[in-house]
Amino acid sequence: MSTATTTTSTTTTTSAVQPQKQQQEILHLTSTPDITPYAKHGYLFGQKLAASMSPLLHSIVYSHLSLNWAQLRLDSPSIPLFLQLAQHPDFYGASVTMPHKVAIIPHLDHLTPECRDVGACNTLFLKTDPATGRRLFCGANTDVIGVRESFVQNVSEPAKVYESRPALVIGGGGAARSAVYALHKWLGATDIYLVNRDQSEVDAVIAECTERGYGDRLVHVASVEQAERLAGPGAIVACIPDFPPKTEEEVLARRIIETFLGKEEKGAMLEMCYNPSPFTELGALAEKEGWQVILGTEALIWQGIEQDKYWTGRTNEELPIQEVKEVIASKLAEASKSQAS
User: Fold this and answer.
1) Is Cell cycle a UniProt keyword of this protein (predicted)?
2) Is 101 a catalytic residue?
């Protein structure tokens, strides 16, 4: 029995009014996206989606492949609404973003290993049960691919730069978990240092990663003195907003980061923050210290390309990666210009 079937059955028996509640949630949505112009459609499902470049990225891919497809924004708190819309025969899949990346999982029939191990889903794709013909909702996590490919595609000598060296993850949210997974599984990290302003978030990351089998080499670095004693990292993934440090905890975290950046051996830093601009204060500090800085748009692009591989069945060689990079760079340049004016 599938996870989705189990969940639905349990919900129905425990609450007879649940179907009515779901219908009311659907009716409360002021408008659903217009799907009529497209042969197939998907959704960007989450909240506060106005600035997302995900629909733009996928539109470039579909245009290149001559597909009359579109990814449409579904800005809603309602998973029941999304699941009902996803029953449409022309639905092909969805990007799942905050706050639904974890909450969607009980409604899925199958999870990829990455999705299961990270405990978050950012991609829903479809399969068909060969025995019954039933549509299956499958969850993947392509955020980890975005982190991996950002390093693999941009660092010319990984054996010298980051393999078999410690790594550093800055932050304590969902992106930090994806970074830990990618560094552990694919990028050859030994120890993985965690630096964050919030001790409880670090504790949660370590506990969850340990429970899922890849937390044994995580080290919370909580002081400058501790950072000074440790070997320098080869790969850094920064998963925090581009705000200057203000609180005591934020200032301490920045000093620890600066200590790592200032070590003799350098490496490559992926700056995951790209909105409103990928050119951040932390990225500038790293460049000044001699680090290779990889812009966060690289992670955005590679996780999106991986999504389209699930949805279209095409390979990297068949997808317009360079065109996507050029359009995204142009869009960000416009946004940065508007922000500065």
Assistant:
1) no
2) yes
